[in-house]
Amino acid sequence: MPAPVIEHEKTIYREQAKASGKPDKILDKIADGKLEKYFGDFCLVEQAFIKDPDRKVSQLLADAGKAAGAAIAVRAFARFQVGEGMEKRSTTWPPRWRSSSGRGDRSDPPPCGVAWRNRRTAGSS
Fold it and tell me: Which residues contact 32 (CB under 8 A, 6 or more apart)?
């Protein structure tokens, strides 16, 4: 992480602690603790490993590097969010399908074949 970003976050945390009335001698310790939490949230290698939350990703990489006999580094990664891509599609059916299905103004699709079955039986009488 770039040094200016670290210093900026540190000053923010110091000001927050000072505004809450904490003594000046512990402001740096509070800022350091919050900075560690910040790294844990925003830096991949400082985050907890999903399969073993007691270990950080950096520890896992170091152990894997020792086992492989070479240094291992993260070059790229993909971020997935739970439920991402699962948005419900909204489908608006034409009014003639809604009215022939006997469902009124509902916008969800009629059961398979309802609109066409009603149309066939109406014309055959």
Answer: 10
Task: Give the lowest-confidence range in 26-30, 72-76, 87-91, 102-106.
Answer: 102-106
Q: Does the residue 26 lie in any domain?
A: yes
Q: Do 125 and 105 share a structural domain?
A: yes
| Residues 62 and 32 occupy one common structural domain | no
CATH, residue 1: 1.10.286.20
pLDDT tens-digit map of 51-64: 988 999 999 999 99
Distance CA 25, CA 22 (A): 9
Q: Return all residues near 69 (Cβ < 8 A) that are at least 6 apart.
A: none
The residue behind tokens 């997935």 is: 80
Any idea which residue has 């399908």 for tokens? 97
Structure tokens given for 118: 């009603």
Q: How many domains does the chain have?
A: 3
Q: Which domain holds residue 102?
A: 91-125
Residue 12 has, within 13 A of its CA and on its CB side, a CA count of 9
- The answer to whether the CB of 96 falls within 8 A of the CB of 79 is no
